[in-house]
Amino acid sequence: MKYFKQKLMGVLMVSLFAANATAQLDEFPRTPSGKPDFSGIWQAMTKAHYDVEPHAAAYGPHPDKMGALSAIPGSQGIVEGGS
Question: With CB atoms 3.0 to 4.6 Å apart as the test, which of 21, 50, 70, 79 could cross-link to 66 if both were Cys?
Answer without folding.
Answer: 70
